[in-house]
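Hi there,

I know you've been waiting on this one. I reran it after we fixed the sequence typo, so this is the corrected version. Both the input and the resulting structure follow.
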Amino acid sequence: MKRILLLLLAVLLVQPVFGQDGKTLKRKVAIGRFTNETQYAKGLFYDRDNDPMRKQALDLLSAKLASSGKFLLLERDGLEELVAEAGEGMQKIGADYIILGSITKFGRKVEGDQRIFSQTKTQTVEAGVSIRLVDVSSGLIIYSDEASGYAETSAKTTLGIGGTAGYDATLSDKAISAALSQLVENIINKCMDKPWRGYLLAIDDGNYVIGGGASQGIAAGDTFGLYKKGKVVTNPQTGIKIELPGKRIGSLTVLATMGDTPETEISLCSYEGESVDMNDLLNYYLMEK
């Protein structure tokens, strides 16, 4: 009996921490850009927007984040211009976090080992990737790191018998994927460390309309705390503006969700608490209860 209790305790200790009713509310993430900063395969007519290596990295990162089941990935045109803006410009993105990435290193080499009766040919690719994670609400970079990945393939012939190693285009995918794999877990942890936050969009006929819906994990019956934003102060050492913790003024209960896409989804809620200034809804936010 004691052994069974210990096993049950061990299972409970390794269970992930979720939001209400065992659900995880997905964070909205926009991959702002992924550039190729290397000189590999850049000829006279190089087109930065159609760089195949840049697209490889972008697709691989999107796939890895999507497979975690913790994010809604958003596509945003002109995102670099919005990132360059301050405050209100960042809020227009509609995401919780922005990922900015670049391929900083890429190299391919072929080595051969010639012996009396055999020959070995090895292709090796090394890729370096740099990532920055920006918190949209503050505009601050909350995570920055880089990693390198390797991939290789070999072919051996003995007395003229065996496989041959031609140019392997998949090695670049594998090397970039290996580099990204070292960073993705940290990206996920940084995004999930901060409590989920939503926003009040409108008050209409007694219904309180919030952003987000079913695809984000919101469902009828969910309850959120409504907070009034805290005062914004400036750190004299860094010049960075810091928002002080907000004050909880009431509770929102989801009545129904609607919308066709993650960008257009909304939820209708009932509300109990202090009065809300309808002319200053940007001064409020909601968090998991």
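Quick highlight: The two ends are 37 Å apart (CA to CA).

Best,
R. S.
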